[in-house]
């Protein structure tokens, strides 16, 4: 009979944990950006989209648009070598990886989606590092920082994509 009080406490803890988990799940389903490191930027990017697959698609497309714009700026400031040249190469690579990521969503290939978004994230980080090494802190460096945050958000959203 002395087991009953313990079972009662364990049962109560279990019910509280279950209720908390279901509340957290409903919050993330209503707002997919709760999983991201930069939720305000994420919300501005996905524009109220609550379907996780659609939100991830929208976020990737917006990132591709911004990458294209950064690439155009880099082409205007291009020198033979240095940070800008590295960024231009990495922006091209990131764009290709993002294009593959869109295909991965359509094919429900979460593993490849993660790989391609991680690769794009690395491309933006490499650009930032190259600009720091050459001490070229300019609009391209700042753009790479924003693109990195957007890619990080895409990667976070991709963890919710249904496979």
Structure description:
The chain is an all-alpha fold and 163 residues long. The longest helix is centred in the N-terminal third of the chain and has 28 residues. The N and C termini lie far apart (48 Å).
Low-confidence spans: 9-28
The percent of residues in helical segments reads over 70%
C-alpha termini separation = 48 Å
Number of helices: 6
Please report the total strand number as a whole number.
0
Report Rg. Answer: 21 Å
Secondary structure category: mainly alpha
Shape: elongated
The SSE string, one letter per element, is HHHHHH
Largest sheet: none
**How large is the share of residues in beta strands?**
under 5%
Per-chain topology:
Elements: H1 3-30, H2 39-46, H3 52-76, H4 83-106, H5 110-133, H6 139-158
Which descriptors apply to this entry?
mainly alpha; 0% strand; 6 helices
Brief overview:
This protein is mainly alpha-helical. Helix content is 79%, strand content 0%. Helix 3 packs antiparallel against helix 4 (83-106), helix 4 (83-106) packs antiparallel against helix 5 (110-133) and helix 5 packs antiparallel against helix 6 (139-158).
């Amino acid at each position: 009979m002395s087991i009953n009080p313990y079972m009662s406490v364990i049962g109560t803890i279990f019910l509280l944990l279950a209720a908390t988990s279901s509340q957290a799940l409903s919050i993330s389903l209503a707002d997919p950006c709760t999983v991201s490191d930069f939720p305000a930027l994420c919300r501005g990017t996905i524009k109220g989209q609550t379907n996780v697959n659609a939100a991830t698609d929208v976020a990737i497309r917006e990132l591709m648009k911004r990458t294209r714009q950064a690439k155009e700026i880099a082409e205007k400031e291009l020198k033979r070598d240095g940070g800008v040249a590295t960024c231009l190469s990495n922006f091209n690579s990131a764009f290709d990886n993002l294009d593959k990521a869109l295909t991965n969503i359509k094919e429900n290939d979460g593993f490849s989606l993660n790989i391609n978004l991680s690769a794009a994230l690395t491309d933006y980080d490499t650009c930032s590092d190259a600009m720091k090494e050459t001490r070229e802190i300019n609009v391209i460096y700042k753009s790479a920082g924003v693109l990195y945050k957007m890619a990080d958000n895409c990667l976070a959203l991709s963890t919710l994509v249904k496979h």
